[in-house]
Design a protein that fits this description.
This protein is α/β, with parallel strands linked by helices. It has two domains: 173 residues, Rossmann fold, CATH 3.40.50; 168 residues, 2-Layer Sandwich (Dihydrodipicolinate Reductase, domain 2). The protein has a nine-stranded mixed β-sheet. Strands 3-2-1-4-5-6 form a six-stranded parallel β-sheet, with helices on both faces. The longest helix has 20 residues. The protein is globular and about 60 Å long. It binds nicotinamide-adenine-dinucleotide. It comes from Hymenobacter jeongseonensis. This is Gfo/Idh/MocA family oxidoreductase. Keywords: Oxidoreductase, Signal. InterPro entries: Gfo/Idh/MocA-like_OxRdtase_C, Gfo/Idh/MocA-like_OxRdtase_N, Gfo/Idh/MocA_oxidrdct_glycsds, Glc-Fru_OxRdtase_bac, NAD(P)-bd_dom_sf, TAT_signal. It holds the Pfam family GFO_IDH_MocA_C.
Length: 386
């Protein structure tokens, strides 16, 4: 048999296994089988009761991404708002039909305990404030969804977990990529062995942080509020992706930092961190995060037979998958979905079905422990066992 027909056969075999039928193929098996919010049993919510969410912190991400996503959610609705700005809150209350009685300041927030329309408190504040508001929400007897990074210290993460456990309430960390169809499809393909044995993963997340131009970047360069620099804010996507793509927990980590401390943005927080994770199976992940480059949000998983590339991997609305072998590249036509609505629906389902979220507090704690080990490694210039 000629080399050409051998390679054609192996390409056909690979494509058949990957569920691909042409160079630019239509949707393959794994994604088609994946429920949107990755729930095993689709929720039977016959009484059509929607779970009520209070939004705490009406900033850029809350207003531009999450609040509009409630319109596409099946099981979640906005029933309360919490803000330090009464004018902004009044305007958003009108837009989202929230009762004036369900609008709170940070000072009277604890009285939310008396509001039966609120099941879940969703914390969209800077990370340095997450712990305080998660604990207060749990003490008010509410389930909690909190933004990433979960908190700025391991002790705070533990305090948040303990408070929700004591109150008998669910705690979920808003890792939207774990509810996003392209990332779920990639996880399924790796699990199915479509790439062969996984050998290594790379992931890069970077952008220009611009506190002088964007109000939402002001807290990102203040250590007390952000906990750290690019690693805490966006490197966490690389770190979390390495964990969900491998399905393993790292045993050793190593990091190197490069920050121009004369740049006024980086007086308190780091710019670049490059890091390596060693997983028990022998898989290595090499990841980067940076606050001084053009935007990048990508990942690549390398197996013995093929690689899978997502670029962008963790965008809000646009994702692109490429699978490559020695024979060439193909682009499975995975369907875009609203990851924000899927995340909200998952939280709502966990409340309605009394089940632990797929990304619980413990998932957020794991990343913060690893981030602390990475900072330690960068400081000491040595690998750290975890
Ligand atoms: P933002 O600055 O636009 O919003 C923060 C809000 O917190 C503002 O309304 C601000 O007024 C309020 N706030 C209350 N007390 C404050 C204080 N002491 N200092 C500063 N702000 C205070 O920021 P954002 O980009 O909307 O980020 C909010 C949260 O959402 C963060 O935890 C961030 O990591 C997370 N986030 C997540 C994603 C994602 O894709 N999952 C994307 C962006 C932001």
């Amino acid at each position: 048999m000629s080399t050409k027909s051998n390679s054609t056969d192996s390409r056909r075999q690979f494509m058949r296994k990957a569920g691909l039928t042409a160079a630019v193929a239509t949707i393959a098996g794994p994604a088609a089988a994946l429920p949107f919010a990755d729930t095993d049993s689709p929720l039977q919510n016959d009484d059509q009761r929607k779970v009520g969410f209070a939004i705490v912190g009406l900033g850029k991400y809350a207003q531009e991404q999450m609040m509009p996503a409630f319109k596409e959610s099946k099981h979640a609705k906005i029933t309360a708002l919490v803000s330090g700005s009464p004018e902004k809150m009044q305007q958003l209350a009108k837009q989202y039909s929230v009762d004036a009685k369900s609008c709170y300041s940070y000072q009277n927030f604890d009285s939310i305990k008396d509001n039966p329309a609120v099941d879940v408190v969703y914390i969209v504040l800077p990370p340095g404030l997450h712990a305080e508001y998660v604990v207060r929400a749990a003490q008010a007897g509410k389930h909690v969804l909190t933004e990433k990074p979960m908190a700025t210290s391991v002790a705070d993460c533990q305090r948040m977990i303990d408070a929700c456990r004591k109150a008998g309430k669910q705690l979920m960390v808003a890792y939207r990529a774990q509810y996003e169809p392209f990332n779920l499809d990639a996880i399924a393909r790796i699990k199915n062995g479509e790439l062969g044995k996984l050998r290594y993963v790379t992931s890069d997340h970077g952008r220009q942080v611009e506190p002088s131009k964007d109000k939402a970047d002001e807290w990102r360069v203040v250590k007390k509020l952000a906990g750290g620099g690019s690693l805490m804010d966006i490197g966490i996507y690389s770190l979390n992706a390495a964990r969900y793509l491998t399905g393993e927990e790292p045993v050793e980590v190593m990091a190197m930092e490069s920050t121009d401390r004369t740049d006024p943005r980086f007086k308190e927080v780091e710019d670049q961190i490059h890091f390596t994770l060693r997983f028990p199976s022998g898989v290595l992940a090499t990841c980067t995060s940076a606050y001084s480059i053009e935007t990048v949000k990508r990942l690549r998983a390398f197996g013995e037979k093929a690689y899978l590339d997502l670029d962008p991997a963790t965008d809000y609305y646009k994702h692109n998958m490429t699978i490559g072998t020695a024979e060439g590249e193909m682009k499975p036509a995975v369907k875009e979905g609203n990851q924000f609505a899927a995340e909200l629906d998952h939280m709502a389902e966990c409340v309605l079905q009394n089940k632990t979220p797929k990304t619980p507090g413990e998932e957020g704690l794991r990343d913060i422990k690893l981030i602390m080990a990475l900072y330690e490694s960068a400081k000491k210039g040595k690998p750290v066992k975890v």
